[in-house]
Amino acid sequence: MRDRGHLNLDHEAGELTACGRAFLGDLGIDLRSPARSRRILCRPCLDWSERRPHLAGRAGAAVADLALQRDWIRRRPQGRSVEITDAGLLAFRNLFGARI
Description:
two-stranded antiparallel sheet; globular; two-stranded antiparallel ribbon
């Protein structure tokens, strides 16, 4: 998402660009804040396995929820990790520009 201009993200802060909001909206992700949510929209979170920041906050959770709904990822039986499905590999590469 960073390479495509959808996201500015580093170890300190995160911000979705207007292009990024439109991109996620086109995927069906609604980023309007729920009435009782105090969760920040976009922030970095250090990935424990790769030691690189990834998207967290409401935007990150919404992308994860979409990926679970579309069977791009599946939760593993134990722990918090997920596995990427074949469909997910294609989606993350084509839609998000991920290098997996």
